[in-house]
Specification:
The chain is of the alpha/beta class. It has 7 helices and 7 strands. It has a 7-stranded mixed β-sheet with strand order 3-2-1-4-5-7-6, sandwiched between helices. The longest helix is centred in the N-terminal third of the chain and has 15 residues, at 2-16.
């Protein structure tokens, strides 16, 4: 009993503090109530996807955004990337249940993305960059795998203990060679879009 209590104390500590979101609470990320905070359709609109886009979703969690994105790129591919294998299993189960065949789970660390140079048209992160052990290294790794003129989209939500400000994100992006393109703001958070120019 004590070990059970200690386990859930640790889960709550990770949920309410900084760091990787606990996979044990993945159901909260995939809850329909989350649509009141951030709608998958709106986020997908902000990515300016084409039917053949090759997309990297860093920190896919249980796949809350993944099905919407995959459905918008029927001739493309979505790579669902997460540091937690347990999250990827949940995302993969969800994708399979929707009979989606163009989305693929990959496990790894976002500070060193295991992909070839200039592979992706779009890379996006939703409330994830602040959880990465070294956000600056992550941004340089994203720059390497993103095509020239590719889109980097970062969404942050108010109340997230790992939230990075617009100023912090812009600074990180600039250091990694991105140029600012546009902002989408709501009362609950914001999305910043950047382009890789060279």
């Amino acid at each position: 009993m004590d070990s059970f209590i200690e386990k859930w104390k640790d889960i709550f500590r990770r949920f309410s503090g900084k760091g990787v979101y606990p996979n044990e609470l993945a159901f909260l990320l995939d809850n329909p109530i989350r649509r009141l905070i951030i709608k998958t359709e709106i986020l997908a609109d902000n990515l300016h996807l084409k039917s053949n886009s090759v997309v990297l979703e860093i920190g896919c969690g249980p796949g809350y955004f993944s099905t919407e994105i995959a459905n918008r790129i029927p001739l493309g591919r979505l790579i669902m990337f997460d540091i937690q294998k347990e999250m990827l299993l949940k995302a993969q189960t969800k994708i399979r249940s929707k009979e989606i065949i163009n989305a693929f789970p990959i496990n790894g660390d976002a500070t060193s993305l295991p992909f070839i140079t200039s592979k992706f048209d779009v890379v996006f992160l939703v409330t994830v960059l602040g959880e990465v052990s070294n956000p600056e290294e992550c941004m340089f790794s994203i720059s390497r795998v993103l095509k020239v003129n590719g889109l980097l989209s970062i969404t942050e939500m108010n109340g997230d203990p790992d939230l990075l400000t617009q100023e912090e994100l812009s600074s990180l992006a600039s250091k990694a060679g991105f140029t600012f393109e546009e902002t989408y703001s709501t009362s609950r958070g914001f999305t910043l879009n950047f382009r890789k120019v060279k």
